[in-house]
Amino acid sequence: MEKQQRHEFRRSWDACREVPIIQDEQIPKKRVQCLKWFSCAIVGILVFVLALLSKTSFILLITIGNNQTEIISSEKKPTALLGIGFVLVGPSVLLLLKSTWKFIFKSAAMPSKKTVLWVLCVEFLVALGAAILTIVAMPHFDIITNVMILNSVSILSAVFQVVAECLAKERKRLIMLPVCSIFFIVLGYVLFAVSYLVFESSPKIKVSIGLAIVGTICVSVNWWENYSTLFSVSSLEDISKDIAQSRNVVCIISSLVRILITSAVAGAYVPLSGQDWKSVKLVFETVVISLVAIQIASSALCHWFVVVACKMHALHRCFALPIYLASITVLPVFFISFAVKPPESNQTNIQAISSDKLLLLMLTDAMKTLHASNMETGGLACLICSAFSWWLGLMLSTFYIWFLKIHRIERTQDLFVRRMYEGAFLEQSMLLNTRFEIRKRIKEKQCAKETIRVFLCATMWHETYDEMMKIIISMFRLDKYRPKTDKHSDVAFEFHIYFDDAFKDVDNGRQRHANEYAEILVDVIKEVYTIFSEEDPCIFKQMPPLPWQKIINTPYGGRLEYTLPKGNVMMVHLKDKQLIRHKKRWSQIMYLYYILGWRLNKKYFKKFEAGEELESLKERLKRDKENTYILALDGDTDFQPSAVMLLIDRLKLYPEVGAACGRIHPTGTGPMVWYQKFEYAVGHWLQKTAEHVFGCVLCSPGCFSLFRGAALMDDNVMKRYTTKATEASHYVQYDQGEDRWLCTLLLQQGWRVEYNAASDAYTNAPQDFKEFYNQRRRWGPSTMANTIDLLGSGGLTSQKNSSISKLYILYQIISMAASILGPATICLMISGSFVFILKLNENIALALAIVPPTVYLILCFKLKSDMQIKIAAIMSVLYAFLMAGTILSIIGDLVKQKTFLTPSGLFLIGMVVLYIITAGLHPQEFSLVIYGLLYFLCIPSGYLLLAIYSIVNMNNVTWGTRETGSQAKSTAVDTIKKKVMNAICCKCPCLESEEDLSQEILPAETITKTEKTHIPLETQRAHELPLHPHQTWIEHLQMKSYDFPLHESALPMDEIDFWRELLKKYLEPLKENKEEQEKIANDLRELRNKVTFAFFFCNALWLVATFFLQAIGDSISIKIPKIYPNGTYDANEVFSLDPIALMFLLSFALLLIVQFVAMLYHRIYTLIHFVSYADTEIKACRKQSHQIQYSNYQHETDEPDTALCFQNPSVLRRAVTSV
Predict the structure, then answer these.
(1) What are the Cα distances from residue 513, in Å, to 560, 575, 1013, 1032?
(2) What is the pTM of this model?
(3) Is 675 exposed, middle or buried (0-12, 13-18, 19+ CB in 10 A)?
(4) What DSSP string describes 513-569?
(5) Which of 718-732, 1022-1036, 1150-1164 has the lowest mean pLDDT?
(6) CA of 352: how far to CAs of 73, 347, 777, in Å?
(7) Where is the signal peptide (predicted)?
(8) Sign of the CA dihedral with 677 first, then 679, 680, and 685 last
(9) I need a labelling partner for 1214 at 20 to 30 A (CA). Which of 309, 548, 824, 986 fits?
(10) CB–CB of 944/850 below 8 Å?
């Protein structure tokens, strides 16, 4: 009681808190809302304008083909009919090209004969109907009919909807919409026939009316596939499934049929109508060509923007509404010509008319079709009523779109039934092609929505207090974002931390206790738990005690199980390296087999033993594997919940995606971090986006990547990942870059790896030159080994993986060649610097440029790695001065030459402009351009010296980072403990003075350059706890965490058996065998020597070839005249380039252009995904938070108000900011 009173007293005066400051890169909500509304407004306007432009240009082509119009002479009317034919086959040609590409480089599945026969019949009917309607019938009608008769192609879709609703036994009010649609379309047919047959009767018009009605009905068969699965007809369902599996071949067949039938109808109709094809010249009328080009381009763009609108989750305001309005706005556009006096048409000199007057003339000419019909008021009224009826029929038959539920970035094949639009029926085809689902099935799909389970697995070793704080707060933040409730949730999270080497010897090796790093982690979890569970920091409210958590002894060491404030579970697995194999890859194997092998399979195996149906269990297990994700993390990763959700979207909607990674931002201070910030930025901006767009990402970094359970459990992935390194190449490929090797296994097995630029994660980067070089010493050889492995199996991989084509393999070969020849290229650049600055002969400059790296290469074979790094650091500084002089010399040369159109000037300016534009398209990261200058100065260090150091030290397979901080930190902690023990033994109530303590800790802190040692408050209070020499590690941690109680628990026996079997088969500690270690060391040296010889032999060949080309001189050099900025050139002054240098410059420029185009494409789809996320996820979170606030308010109002609480707003604001 007295202790509690003392605690309450201390809490009353010691109420100030230290809230951790976590880097938060979330965009402000107002900016997100503005971006969302601006994007939706732009897309909606573009859809409306493009649809209007497509429809207007097509109707103008129809009216030009009418004999009543005068824009072109009657003998040239076949030109307009040919233009209509081009409009009809335009989408088919695009579809043919796209499907042929996919057939060659992706899927080549063949359909059955029944499917081919069905497709031929349907496509023949649709193509015939479209050609007869647009080429034969519509040129005889007036402008009102031509604008609106296309809407009647929805009649069969409405009939199919009625049948589907009846079979589904839905409520009658839902069936009334398609019924009314059928009524209005039929009414439109009747009024249309009456207006012509009663008020204007002629034999030709009667035939045209019949052909028009039959043509629209034939065209309406086009969207049969949208309803094929709703009629319970097995043959139709089989055909639909076969079409889905062999979509590329089916599209090729349908495109060819469309082109052939349209060409046949157009070719036969002209002679049959008394016209002559001879009047069609090789060069068509400019008006017709322009209209065809405008129609095809606007239709294609409109289709793309409609897809964008749907993926942005703006289906209503950016797709349905603009399309409906565009369909009827065409008429007012034509009626505008009544208000403006048009110019008189002159067929002989029509090209002399300006474009705006020509447009007005065509609109007025189109209105003549209405006057030429000689209809009375009754006939016009019938026409207007029929037009309105058809428009209403289209609206009602596609009204289901307003109830359609779609996902973020929905797949195009899930949005639309057919792959392409119809050129002549753009609005109708886009609306009717949208996938139809009856309301009952939508509700069933929502109820049957499966929960995605995400296991966050972080690997730790010797992280500092600040680094641990980042990852723990990120996990707690995610726990708050998706609380674990009884209600159905779309995503469920579980957190795991796998702590390597978490134990140490105590009591002269007789016992093992958790080391200081594990103790710090326990303190960090307690501190963060307190922050996130303390919603109201008011001093007048009694703070509830922290809940009991579990501490468990396990076969691999120990486990801490926490139930987080919002109900999610976090497990900390403390690994004892004497019991289980340590290092990162083995920690990954540990959680892969625990989560996927044990947790996932166990429940289904028990159900099988209980007698459940085998096929049902297989299907459910398959779905569970697909819906189980693992988020691989490092122990210092900082991320926001939105970053995780954006990665989940990629795997959730695209079943072929096996892994997805985000944008990794290095954090820290100092020149080395600045260099890495720009290096990471360029790598993600250009290289990773190009890999994503043209093929697959080759490396999904282990610090922040989401993996699909089904992909990891696939053949030759998880099982092969357990392979113990037995050969020299295995040590390089398997253990030096385990994340890249895992991605290589996924790619070879046929899975896709993607990159999401909107998913940001932050991780500490090496701040010291030595640590940076050691990190890249691991990454460089492992990258090369895995890339060579992938390219070596390129043929087989491209067969199994539809995302990797032969062209992408070629792209990677070129990139690999550029990487290998990087040192020689840098030497050539340095040689050019000598020529610019010192005015040396080119060959002498090349020799001087080669000498320093050659000497460094020899020294690397003789000296220890630490000395190699020191020499590299000194040479990096000297090279930086040289690069600075090179920049100034190039600029001075441009001034001297009075032109920037020189090879060096164009290269420098082009690179600067490209990087600035690229950075401008990443506005949040634009400030990184500042570090671009440092990056340029360090190019020789990063691409020459580092390459030499990495290749020569390939035989060094140690980790290289976080190996110096251990000793420093343990020294600091041991100093504290010695003071504690002295104080306890002397029965002193206090420790020595702080000055003496800091003086003894200071030397230990100076050893650690890359870490900030933070001794938690609980460690400093250790004198309050009695220390027992024979206590277990559980008792020791329980005593240290006395105010965050840990209750000792035990594992189930079946799980203990699992861990024992797993340890025995895959994770037993590796036994030291000196003979085997010596053999591996010799093999690694031999491998190093071979790779070094091959690597630098290629560079030597490149340099020797350049040397001889320069020695030969002008006879083979390529002369480029000097061009001034005003366009003039001086034939007497030329620049000389040898062929190899020119080829390299062109190849490098082409590579950059390809990557830049890929970056533009990727930025567009990143914006689409982000806007879609802002429009859906943020709304859901706001709704959830309102519900929680309301429930809390209800709870508070039900309780009596016992105390008046004064709260400091600034404290609350800081707490919210930290979350």
Answers:
(1) 14, 11, 21, 7
(2) 0.85
(3) buried
(4) EE-HHHHHHHHHHHHHHHHHH-S---TTSPPPPPPPEEEEEETTEEEEEEE-TTS-E
(5) 1022-1036
(6) 16, 10, 70
(7) none
(8) positive
(9) 548
(10) no
Q: In three state form, how does the secondary structure of 1046-1097 look? A: EEEECCCHHHHHHHHHHHHHHHCCCCCCHHHHHHHHHHHHHHHHHHHHHHHH
Q: State the DSSP H helix or E strand holding residue 1168, giving kind and residue range, or none if neither.
A: helix 1139-1198
CA–CA separation, 800 vs 702, rounded Å?
Answer: 24
Nearest residue to 195 (alpha-carbon basis) of 181, 184, 205: 205
Whole-angstrom Cα distance, residue 323 to residue 164? 25
In tens, the pLDDT along 216-244 reads 999 999 999 888 877 777 888 889 889 98
CB 142 within 8 A of CB 63: no
pLDDT of residue 1106: 81
DSSP 8-class letter at 223 = G
Rounded to whole angstroms, how far apart are CA atoms 484 and 58? Answer: 56
Q: What are phi and psi of 981, to 5 degrees?
A: -65, -40
* Cβ atoms within 10 Å of 322's Cβ, excluding its own: 27
| Alpha-carbon distances, residue 932 vs 519, 928, 941 (angstroms) | 41, 7, 15
- Residue 916, pLDDT > 80, answer yes
Q: What angle do CA 615, 616, 620 make, to 5 degrees?
A: 120
Q: Residue 37: helix, strand or coil by DSSP?
A: helix
909 pLDDT above the threshold of 60: yes
Lowest-pLDDT range of 295-309, 522-536, 739-753, 764-778: 522-536
Contacts of residue 288, Cβ cutoff 8 Å, sequence gap at least 6:
61, 64, 72, 79, 80, 82, 83
Decide if 279 contacts 79 (C-beta within 8 A). Answer: yes
What are 351's two structure tokens? 């090209």
Query: Which backbone phi and psi does 760 adopt, to 5 degrees?
Result: -95, 135
DSSP H or E run through 634? strand 628-634
Backbone phi, psi, residue 10, to 5°: -65, -35
Question: What is d(CA 1043, CA 1045) in angstroms, rounded to the nearest whole number?
Answer: 6
Distance (Å, rounded) from C-alpha 560 to C-alpha 550?
Answer: 6
Q: What is the pLDDT of residue 581?
A: 92
Cα distance between residue 106 and residue 801, in whole Å: 8
Name the residue with tokens 């992408």: 808
CB 875 within 8 A of CB 866: no
Report how many helices (DSSP H) and strands (DSSP E) the chain contains, helices first: 48, 15
CA distance 43 to 312: 10
DSSP-based helix, strand, coil % in the chain, nearest 5:
70, 10, 25
CA pseudo-torsion sign 944, 681, 684, 583: positive
C-alpha neighbours within 13 Å on the C-beta side of residue 459: 22
DSSP 345: P
Answer yes or no: are the C-beta atoms of 149 and 138 closer than 8 Å: yes
* β pairing state of 491-499 and 657-667: unpaired
Residue 582 is encoded by which pair of tokens? 């340590």
What digits encode the pLDDT tens for the residues 171-186? Answer: 555 688 899 999 999 9
> What SS3 state is found at 31?
helix
Residues 6+ apart with CB under 8 A from 51: 298, 302, 322, 323, 326, 327, 426, 427
Give the residue from 189, 241, 196, 191 showing the smallest Cα distance to 213. 189
